Amino acid sequence: MRTLRRGAPTTAARTRQRRSPDPGETFSPGDPVEVVLDEPGQRVAHFEAVVVARSTNPRGYTVEYDALVESEGSGSDSDRPLREVVPARSVRPRPPPRWRTLEAPVEYAPVDALLNDAWCLGVSLGDPNESGKFRVCFPVMRKVMEFDASDVRPHLEWVSGEWKQRSDHGMADPENMPYKKGMRIEVSKLEDNCVVAWMPAVVAETFWKSNLLVEYTVSKSEGTTTPEIVDVKHVRPCRPGPQGPTIGFCINDEVEAFQGNGWWLGVITDVHLGLKYTLKSAYLGMEIQLSQKSLRPRYDWVDGLWKQNSQPRTSPKNLYFFQIFVKLEFGGPIFHASWVALFLF
Length: 345
Description:
By secondary structure, the protein is mostly beta strands. The chain has 1 helix and 27 strands. It starts with a strand and ends with a strand.
């Protein structure tokens, strides 16, 4: 059974000295290149490889990766460099070595960092720390990692046969960026890659193609907040305020409850007098009683539109509470029972 895994660069890969093709050249067998792995809406990871042969169907190249290996057995002796056919649009030359020796990238500059044998697009967080390592943020993953200087390079793009280096803060397209500087937004809080809450924030800066520097507007337990760089996939506009009468909720309604520092997802499990509700947190699983002013219907931001998960049933002006006391005597102890009946008109 053949398996694929990452491994150390082979001896052949270490000794390859052939130059990268000049701008505008097609690739020939032996040329060192980088292969970009396409993901929906993303072009972020480049793997170093060498061209083995040209391919006509599909039009592209057979490449052999420097650090990706395939196994056909259980022992390490069966490992060999991975070869595969890739489309021509996924292949580019390796950036000139001189770019690796330039001065340290400035704060928020786009960089490539060597992560899991691939050059991955990230955002520089400025000068190296005391140990000489550079901190790089990956907005899509929402992670900050440290790298040696040799594993960080300026981000370059191969455009029409030439290397292009974008300016640090001039890369956001004002026409296409849906969120502008100063705009109030909500940023998702993730647990196990699932959204559990939405945190109010303000866009402090827009840069690169889809990255935002956000500042949270509600203090956390320490009384301060830390700015964060996020991809727009983790952001949505602020929810519009209620239109018309205040909305009432019913059991099993999906809602968002404002607690501490954000709007947490949950489900109504009980309704009480005085416009109070029992909410079961979708994340913690615990129940808490809240007043209606701390709740709002759950909406999802889908393709630029607000979509509601469950429809509220009524407005409080049409909600009436009746408490009925019944005394039953059956020749023994007296039993008292009470019900709360909700009549909707």
